[in-house]
Amino acid sequence: MPQLNPNPWFFIMLLSWLSFSLLIQPKLLSFTHTNQPFNKTITTTKATPWTWPWT
């Protein structure tokens, strides 16, 4: 059964992960974001109690 033979598939998987982690990932992480994060001012709202008509 050729599906159970890990010899060619393990090498393909290893080669693909190494190429991703060494070549593609640093190129993707070097891009700058279009929207830079900034500090938002936190606003607190006062909760008003609800008046239930049946109480």
Automatic annotation (TrEMBL):
GO cellular component annotations of the record: mitochondrial membrane; proton-transporting ATP synthase complex
TM ranges: 6-24
Keyword Transmembrane attributed: yes
Location relative to the cell: Mitochondrion membrane
Protein's membrane topology: Single-pass membrane protein
GO terms under biological process: proton motive force-driven ATP synthesis
Pfam families, A to Z: ATP-synt_8 (PF00895)
UniProt KW keywords: ATP synthesis, CF(0), Hydrogen ion transport, Ion transport, Membrane, Mitochondrion, Transmembrane, Transmembrane helix, Transport
Listed InterPro entries: ATP8_metazoa, ATPase_protein_8
Superkingdom of origin organism: Eukaryota
Gene Ontology molecular functions: proton transmembrane transporter activity
Similarity-based family: Belongs to the ATPase protein 8 family.
Protein's UniProt name: ATP synthase complex subunit 8
Gene transcribed to yield this protein: ATP8
